[in-house]
Specification:
Rieske Iron-sulfur Protein; 21% helix; Naphthalene 1,2-dioxygenase Alpha Subunit, Chain A, domain 1; alpha+beta; 2 domains; seven-stranded antiparallel β-sheet; single chain; 17 strands
Length: 389
């Protein structure tokens, strides 16, 4: 029996009113692999997905590989003309994955039968195919994804005719103007694998102002829940949900000192130095700012109950010139790890609770307005792809 019933679709209405009257989404959509399979097409394959930072491939010939939220293995490469391209890593001969690493090259060669492709995915060589009737190399490129760079991040879309991404993120863009993120530096990322919770649990936790100085008491008391604000009402067509959260002192930091450790981005206003922003760009990117850094989580679902998460930081270029950068970075990361460990414990237990027969459709605090906006984003895409019954 399918989970994708009309009754379930109708039940979403109660989660898309406003925070004062809405109830949480049905627990079964967090635990069902059938529902995740539906989401892979309805949500991931039909939307822009963040796959990494462009600075990871600074030079022509640089590339990395990754898996999209809808399960496609892809190559992201900077071609000879300096443009970033993304295309399937599945050889168009017999379906072998031709690359699953990162590095620098002039072409990609499938080790199975030595079909080779250039940095845009164009087929260059196909040995011993001269007797195959009607075979033309131009007909067998690696399937391309549409690419858009935004604030230094690489986004891809499975639809080559997809509408541009940037206009759908316009409400949040002004909050990033003074960070100049295209020129920020990322000292590398790390990936946590097989985390035991649903991808939506990850998104909800990241932008949950309600738990800020409750679960994270002491270390986040400088950024309390009561200073959460939701400056923009989400509108259909928008692909960002965000909030601000004020500080009780200037230049706050998510570490044991509760103060910024790295050089503060120099163009920030005093107002920007006394708040963070937390943004969801579903279905893959969770992004936040503080006075001395930006931080991001790229979420990749594996099963209904597990995800991989790639985590990274962005700093002003002057940070790397600081003689104590390595030590300050370790201190900063150690602070973040406190939050990560606390959140991991909470989200693990939330996912466990979703499987209970006693899992409830709860009520929202005003400090959780982002959750209702996220519900609205989800449901608009669920409706578009819901199977006819």
């Amino acid at each position: 029996m399918t989970i994708l019933t009309d009754a379930l679709l109708t039940s979403f209405d109660a989660s898309t009113t406003d925070y004062a009257t809405a109830i949480t989404m049905p627990p079964e959509i967090y635990t069902s692999d059938e529902f995740l399979a539906f989401e892979r097409e309805a949500v991931f394959a039909s939307q822009w997905q963040c796959v990494g930072v462009a600075s990871r491939i600074p030079e022509p010939g640089d590339y990395f590989t990754t898996t999209t939220g809808n399960g496609e293995q892809i190559i992201v490469a900077r071609a000879k003309d300096g443009e970033v391209h993304a295309f399937s890593s599945i050889c168009q001969h017999r379906g072998m994955q031709i690359a699953d690493d990162e590095g620098h090259c002039t072409k990609f060669t499938c080790p199975y039968h030595l079909w080779s492709y250039d940095l845009t995915g164009r087929l260059l060589g196909a040995p011993a195919m001269e007797r195959t009737v009607g075979f033309e190399k131009k007909d067998f490129p690696l399937p391309a994804l549409k690419v858009e760079l935004w604030q230094g991040f690489v986004f891809v879309h499975c639809d080559p005719n997809a509408e541009p991404l940037a206009p759908t993120l316009a409400t949040y863009a002004p909050y990033l103007d003074h960070y100049d993120l295209e020129h920020a530096v990322c000292p590398g990322t790390f990936t946590l694998t097989d985390l035991p919770w649903n991808w939506k649990v990850m998104f909800e936790n990241f932008n949950d102002g309600y738990h800020a100085n409750k679960l994270h008491h002491t270390i986040q008391d400088f950024c309390p829940s009561e200073l959460a604000a939701f400056p923009v009402d989400w509108q259909p067509g928008s692909n960002v949900i965000f909030r601000t959260n004020g500080y009780i002192h200037i230049d706050g930091g998510f570490n044991a000192t509760t103060k910024a450790l790295m050089p503060v981005f120099p163009q920030l206003t005093d107002e920007e130095r006394t708040r963070s922003t937390f943004a969801l760009m579903p279905p893959t990117l969770c992004f936040g700012t503080a006075p001395d850094q930006a931080f991001f989580f790229i979420v990749r679902p594996k099963t209904a109950d597990t995800i991989d998460v790639e985590i990274g930081y962005l700093f002003h270029p002057s940070a790397l010139e600081h003689p104590m950068f390595d030590h300050l970075f370790k201190m900063s990361d150690a602070g973040v790890q406190v939050f990560v460990q606390q959140d991991q414990d909470a989200t693990t237990k939330v996912q466990r609770g979703m499987h209970s027969r006693y899992a409830a459709r709860g009520r929202y605090s005003w400090q959780e307005e982002s959750h209702v906006q996220f519900n609205k984003w989800l449901v608009q895409h669920y409706r578009k792809a819901w199977p006819a019954t």
